[in-house]
TrEMBL record:
Pfam families: Glyco_hydro_1 (PF00232)
MF annotations from Gene Ontology: beta-glucosidase activity
Lineage, uppermost ranks: Eukaryota, Viridiplantae, Streptophyta, Embryophyta, Tracheophyta
Statement: the UniProt record of this protein carries the keyword Hydrolase: yes
PANTHER family: GLYCOSYL HYDROLASE, MYROSINASE 3-RELATED
Keywords: Glycosidase, Hydrolase
GO biological process: carbohydrate metabolic process
Keyword Transcription regulation tagged: no
Protein name: Beta-glucosidase-like
Family (UniProt): Belongs to the glycosyl hydrolase 1 family.
Domain of life, source organism: Eukaryota
Classification via Gene3D superfamilies: Glycosidases (3.20.20.80)
Length: 139
């Protein structure tokens, strides 16, 4: 960011589609697949260094993650996952579960609400999980 600032007269910068993929391991339970600490560390570390650059005057106006949901990637199909929400492709309902990174982002964006990363999908949630429970996690 500082290179961009110094070389190109401090342009307005929007960071788009920034994220990290992980192998789609079909042997994991939903509860285990939602434990994506690598993704949390990836975004945390990027934001720490981004903040340092902004403190030194880099004109960063936006940071957008990739992606909200696990999805079909043109180059890799369903073999990798990028989302902060786990999509259960196996149950035929495409049920969505919050990964730990989704909870981390909610906490990061809303410092008034503390969301425990200890709350993870339980084994018996696998057939019933949904983003509908989001309000229960916050409350």
């Amino acid at each position: 960011m500082l290179y961009m600032k110094n070389t190109y007269n401090n342009p307005i910068i929007y960071i788009t589609e920034n994220g990290v993929d992980e192998k789609n391991d079909n042997t994991l339970t939903v509860a285990d697949a939602c434990k994506d600490e690598t993704r949390i560390k990836y975004h945390h570390d990027h934001l720490v260094y981004l903040k340092k650059a902004m403190d030194q005057g880099a004109n960063v106006r936006g940071y957008f993650i990739w992606s909200m949901f696990d999805n079909f990637e043109w180059g890799a199909g369903y073999s990798v996952r990028f989302g902060i929400f786990y999509i259960d492709y196996k149950n035929g309902l495409y049920t969505r579960f919050l990964k730990n990174s989704a909870k981390w982002w909610m906490n990061f964006l809303d410092k008034k609400t503390i969301i425990s990363l200890k709350r993870q999908a339980r084994e018996n949630d696998e057939g019933f999980g949904s983003v509908k429970r989001l309000k229960n996690i916050k409350g």
